[in-house]
Recover the amino acids of this structure.
């Protein structure tokens, strides 16, 4: 999705940046993990296929993605994005007849960052961005039944379990954004700053595409 190709969302633990070609090799390395393939219901791709997928994420109007970086490492050591990557967060506009419905996914790929609030903050930041910038008023999350940690996290974010698919061993959780939920979500993310990726990357180097 081109709307966020120059958008950076800066939180407390995490900073969300657009998925560019510079991030692909690290992402490809993550997705060789059988555990991550199982948890994300993904098939392993070649590196070239991964670059094609990145271009699809950038260009397709029904997909929005950010790479999740460790804010402390990124700001404190001035390291390259790819050295601070911990995961990604995605929004799919899955229903052409209902553009207000977004399916949200979060992956904390680095095991040492799990269970420390990185996924929760990244998810809240993406939900707030989707609500404010994309007009999303209904969120769904489809999670493998074995991924109890992720199911528990989404329930803490006020999602309710609405369906179980025993064939795919998948749970669907949903959150309808009422006025009360909207206020809560904005309160949870009132610390987030939105910045320009180009300005943050320069003069360090030319912005990747």
């Amino acid at each position: 999705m081109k709307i966020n190709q120059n958008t950076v969302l800066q939180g407390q633990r995490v900073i969300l940046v657009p998925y560019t070609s510079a991030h692909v090799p690290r992402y490809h390395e993550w997705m060789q993990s059988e555990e991550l393939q199982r948890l994300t219901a993904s098939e392993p791709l070649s590196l070239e296929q991964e670059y094609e997928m990145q271009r699809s994420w950038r260009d397709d109007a029904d997909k929005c993605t950010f790479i999740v970086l460790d804010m402390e490492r990124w700001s404190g050591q001035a390291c390259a994005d790819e050295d601070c990557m911990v995961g990604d967060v995605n929004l799919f506009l899955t229903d052409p007849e209902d553009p207000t419905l977004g399916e949200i996914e979060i992956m904390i790929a680095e095991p040492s960052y799990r269970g420390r609030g990185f996924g929760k903050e990244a998810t809240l930041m993406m939900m707030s961005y989707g609500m404010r910038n994309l007009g999303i008023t209904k969120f769904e999350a489809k999670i493998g039944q074995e991924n109890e940690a992720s199911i528990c996290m989404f329930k803490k974010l006020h999602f309710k379990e609405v369906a179980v698919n025993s064939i795919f061993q998948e749970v669907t959780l949903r959150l309808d954004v009422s006025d009360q939920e909207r206020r809560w979500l904005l309160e949870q993310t009132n610390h987030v700053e939105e910045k320009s990726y180009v300005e943050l990357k320069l003069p360090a180097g030319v912005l990747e595409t």
Summary: The mean pLDDT is 92. Strands lie at 7-10, 14-18, 63-70, 85-92, 101-108, 138-144, 160-165, 170-176, 193-196. The CA atoms of residues 163 and 172 lie 5 Å apart. The two ends are 12 Å apart (CA to CA).
